[in-house]
Design a protein that fits this description.
single chain, alpha+beta, Ubiquitin-like (UB roll), N-terminal domain of TfIIb, four-stranded mixed β-sheet, three-stranded antiparallel β-sheet, 8 helices
Amino acid sequence: MTHDRDIREVSLTVDGRPVRVPAGSTVLEACRTAGAHVPTLCHDPRLKPFGGCRMCIVEIEGMRGYPTSCTTEVCEGQVVTTASTKLTSLRRSIVELLLSDHNVDCLTCEANGACGLQSLAYEFGIEREHYGGEKHREVALDDGPLIARDLSKCIGCSRCIRICHEVQGCDVYGHEGRGFEALPMTPFALPLSESGCEFCGQCVSTCPVGALTDRQSRFAGRPWEVSEVRSICGYCGVGCTVDYRVHRGRIVGANAPVGVGVNNGNLCAKGRYGYGFTQHPDRLTTPLVRRDGELVAVSWDEAIAEVAAGLAKTRDEVGGQAVGGLASAKCTNEENYLFQKLLRAGIGTNNIDHCARL
């Protein structure tokens, strides 16, 4: 939840288990605090409650119908049931209806093994389509090298629209058409490159199916074949947490874990897609020093000593003002502070600039 909560706690019962959560929490949050499994498709903790998929319906004593737990606020003394024969039947029907208008292209779909709809079909033992009728036959949209769109796999959860509006503030996506024809689309169906898209990949990160995928990761490794290595993004000094997906010794994708780090699952275009340099053949992997006209690989200690000697010689022979320094946005504030202190106090120059200003 994104709204403020007071410090009070509310007591309720979930499947017979007492639980206490902060006032203002949703029933879904209370259920998960209690360890109860409540399936969702349109829910993303980074976004405001939506209640569009209806998968998170529960039974609440004294309340009519089957409210969506993600949009229902907890109350003192609530009695919640998350699993019953009726709830299972309703949720199963929802999944069957979604599958009736879904391109079941699991063999080559990039989301295979990490697809929310596929997982729910497995959970409810759905082996084949139970409803016929018209299906969307949208052609996959080729908008560039980063994001692949296949709206025949869209389930109408609106997560791409909502994250672009609520988190990124770009409003690239919106609903086009009504009813069965409603699909998330750019203004006037423009290509992403002409729509104001920042190619941050936020829409891809929240899509629960294969409607939006990373084009760079296509056919580079199935979800169960890759391992995730947690790291810190090196593109700026914010220090976003990032999980690099590695397959056969190569980075094939990047994600951000929700609820971890300062970025809480969000990345910019550089953080999500700018990993190609790590395995580029021209990348320098060791310090080089020019000796007798040739670049020679040396240790870091040798390289730093060489730089220090060169700076000291220039300062002593010509003066500190002959030296200039260019700081980096990839460093922390503390590192940039030490850098400017080195140049001002150690070298004696105020010729300092920063790459973020250029």
